[in-house]
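User: Hello, can you help with two protein structures?

Assistant: Certainly.
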Amino acid sequence: MIQGVLFDAVGTLIKMQPKISETIYESLQEYNVTQEEFSRSCMKAREFYYTLYEKNFSFGNFREFWSAFIQIILKDLGIKKNLGEKIYDRIMEKTTFLRYPETLEVLDTLSKNYILGVISNWDLESNIADIFEELKLKKYFSVIVASKDVKILKPNPKIFLEALRKINLAPYQCFYVGDDPYEDFYGAKNVGLIPILIDRKEKYGELDCPKIKTLKDIYPYLEKNKFL
């Protein structure tokens, strides 16, 4: 029987405005970088994300991590200037967090019958619990596990198991909802959680997995107590 529902944070429950990639791209406009060139360079930088994150995370230096990440993008674009820290400061200055329109209603409904939790690859200086408090979401969660606190990144099984340990539930007793196929869907599936991919913009139509477009679409799965 399903007793818990666990969620990813950004892209699932909340959104960043603007996205980090949008701020980086905006900062490079004077170099005549096209969107196509930038997207390609971001994809290459993403290949180094996990190694770079864990390396810099060993001493909790988010400024150094993001500066290094941005410099990888710049190098691929042929921009030789050291702009990483300057762009990082701009990201911190501009970034705000918003709830998705249905988030509050869904959490309020689910919290009446299920234990709720969050498992997030949180790679910003700000504290995820404080953000959730500001957005009036924190009260719904029995556990919030962030990579910056446990020093483990999804899809590593340990971060999922840490959340399950804290709520004293087995993987098969919980749904897990996230927006990233690699970090969220397959990460959760490999642990034994019952995963659902939230695909708000229908980017992953080719993937053969349970998908929802909004958080409200989880209701039929819970009503049927359906194992996927």
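That covers the first. Now for the second protein you mentioned:
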Amino acid sequence: MKYSKNKTVLLWSNDKVVIKTVGSIVKSLNLALYKAIVKEDLIGVPYFFAVIDAANLDLNFFISNKDFFTPEEPKMFGIILLNTNKLNKVKIPRGLGKIITNEEVLEKDSLKTTILNKLHSAQKNNKNNRHVHDKKIFRLAFMLRELMNNRVLRIDKLCDEFSVSEKTIRRDFELLNIVGESIVYDKKKKGYCSEYSLHELTRNYD
């Protein structure tokens, strides 16, 4: 079975009720369940949500491994610690309070809702990233087409056209140069144009 960051729930508990509850939820959501055996699994296995028996952890586990549990987007990652008590109080470092919660009793409906919320956030994030990618492709295609037609590109106009920063446009120029364009600034035309382009090169071989 393949485990991925956006499709895997990690479980580390010997409680039969907990195992049955988490397993049932994971199966109903068509996700992958990874049953951890050692604490290293919490670092080495990709997952977006975990249910862990606090008794299995050292008190300073999260403090010692804070960097591994600091997600870019807290809404897309979560950990539930079970059986936390005064005798075994796992320390939660500042910054991880939003992703790690303590639960004495695991409620099926509440857990399922929490996992669904994490999944929704992940899907939304992936969708937004895809839109950003599509916009970049469209912008580069527009710029390349203008260069092929010997038109002059001005950074300020491109920024206004695509609602991006000057740095973004300059990175676009760099990328086009890498793939074969030779974009230079023309002082007379007060803009950027191409000395030669892939269009010119490939046309010679038609």
